[in-house]
Amino acid sequence: MNKRFMAAFICTIVLMLEAAGAGILGMNLNGSCYAAVIHVPDNYKTIQGAVEKALPKDTIIVKEGVYRENIVLTKPLTIKSGKGPDFTSIQAGNSDEPVFKVSNVKEAAIIGFKITGSSASGIHLINSQYNDISSNKISGNEIGIFLLSSNNNTLTNNQADSNEQIGIYLELSNNNTLKENSASQNNDKGIFLSSSNSNSLIKNSIYLNAWNGITLWSSHNNMLQDNYVFRNTYGIVISDSEGSSLTDNSTWSNINIIMPVLLIYTGIILYIIEKRIFALLYTE
After folding, report:
1. Which is more confidently placed, 36 or 279?
2. What is the mean pLDDT of the chain?
3. Are 249 and 226 spatial neighbours (Cβ–Cβ below 8 Å)?
């Protein structure tokens, strides 16, 4: 029995042993098994049910609809919506728990969901590395995205807006990349780094947060580049943090501070114009 035939035989046995709805399992050109594609709710009614049955490196595709559940992820899976966050919403089944809890996982992905309803966090990574969190709309949670002791993750094109406390919060988390995210209209801070070093914040939009736009707290050697930080009470706040690089960030203070200045200049200009007009009218 040659190796290719043995691989095909093993894949066939695995396929037979898998639950009927577990997705599509096949072989690549080298004759080895490749990852399954699992569909929710076609194959499993819940996302968590699919997660529990999936094998590492499988992909779970979630159809449009509203799902009320909490997902606990402890293996490297890709979980993505079929049509994006405007069509696929996950609301916390238990509001005391994160909607997505990713624990001790490498190389997982969460892509394209609306995530809401948790008094903890929308997405919570704990001791997890090299994960991809992208294109999600995360609102109505205590914290939008929370990384704890999690390194080398990538957060791209997420909207962590209108949460009760913080849009994106990193604690004891290093070497992460936050690129082209929105962290706006949160009731406390936009992006908050606490004891988190060597992270890259690039082209994020942070506006209309109740307090700070970006906060570095005991966080060193971070890189902030081309971020847009508008109309927060404070723009970029750095405390007990050293060695960070700030390049080409656009900041604008709260509009309540800017408006009096504009009114003063407008009044001066109007006064000069009126003075010139009266001088012309009454010149003999």
Report:
1. 36
2. 86
3. yes
Using an 8 Å Cβ cutoff, are 84 and 62 in contact?
A: no
Q: 53 is written with which tokens?
A: 């049955």
What residue type is 126 in one-letter code?
Answer: I
User: Is the pLDDT confidence value at 131 over 50?
Assistant: yes
- Interatomic CA distance for residues 67 and 113, integer angstroms: 10
Cβ atoms of 122 and 141 within 8 Å: the answer is: yes
pTM of the shown model: 0.81
- Between 26-35, 40-49, 115-124, the lowest mean confidence (pLDDT) is in 26-35
Q: Are 156 and 136 in contact (CB under 8 A)?
A: no
Place of tokens 């096949």: 26
At CA 238, angle to CA 232 and CA 245, rounded to 5?
105
Q: Which two tokens stand for residue 68?
A: 């009320």
The stretch 232-237 carries a mean pLDDT of: 93
3-state secondary structure labels for all residues of the chain: CCHHHHHHHHHHHHHHHCCCCCCEEEECCCCCEEEEEEEECCCCCCHHHHHHHCCCCCEEEECCEEEECCEEECCCCEEEECCCCCCEEEECCCCCCCCEEEECCECCEEECCEEECCCCEEEEEECCECCEEECCEECCCCEEEEEECCCCCEEECCECCCCCCEEEEEECCCCCEEECCECCCCCCEEEEEECCCCCEEECCEEECCCCEEEEEECCCCCEEECCEEECCCEEEEEECCCCCEEECCEEECCHHHHHHHHHHHHHHHHHHHHHHHHHHHCCC
